[in-house]
Structures are given as structure tokens and as C-alpha cells.
Amino acid sequence: MSGKSQLTLPDEELDWIQLRQDLGPVIEVETTKEKLQRKIKENPLVPLGCIATTAALTMGLYNFRTGNRKMSQMMMRTRIAAQGFTVAALIVGVVMTYGEKKSN
């Protein structure tokens, strides 16, 4: 005896290998970073709207804290406009994605 044993498997246990070959290549799962990059490329206006909303909110809160009520009020109104822009960009992106999937 050589000390090495040989393992034999029944043909039924190897059927999944043939099935995988028949199905073709396995699709790789994208990472969170890759998905974020893809989504930003697909609809770049949404991140832009998020940045604008955050900037307006930050400036509005800063001006509120320093007592500049007029500027604070203007920044809060600007924040609402930026949020509206972001929502509109989301809706346009969803409609465009749905249209592309439906035409394929």
C-alpha cells in the first residue's frame, strides 16, 4: 500500500460540473463600490443634487447659528429647491432605466 488513497465519485455527483459548463460563464457579483460608481455614471445628476442639498442645509444651519436670519431663510429655500431637483433627477433616471429595459 502506498499510503495514498484514491477517491472515486459516482457520475451523479459530477453532474453539477456539466451543468455549470452548459450554463456558461458565471456572472461576477459587483462590490458596493463598483455599484456606486455604476449608479453615478448612469445618473450623475442625483449625486450632484445630494451635494447641493447638503451644502444648502449646512450653510443654512451655519447662518442660523450665527444669527443671520435672512441668509439662513434663503439657504433653507435653496435646500428645498435642491431637494426638488434631486427627486426630479431620480424620477428621470428611473423612467430612462425602465425605458431601456423595456426596449431590450
TrEMBL record:
The chain crosses the membrane at residues 45-64, 80-99. InterPro entries: Hypoxia_induced_domain, RCF1. Its main location: mitochondrion. Residues 17-104 form the HIG1 domain. One of its GO terms (cellular component) is mitochondrial membrane. It comes from the Eukaryota. Keywords: Membrane, Transmembrane, Transmembrane helix. It is found in: Mitochondrion membrane. This is Blast:HIG1 domain family member 2A, mitochondrial.
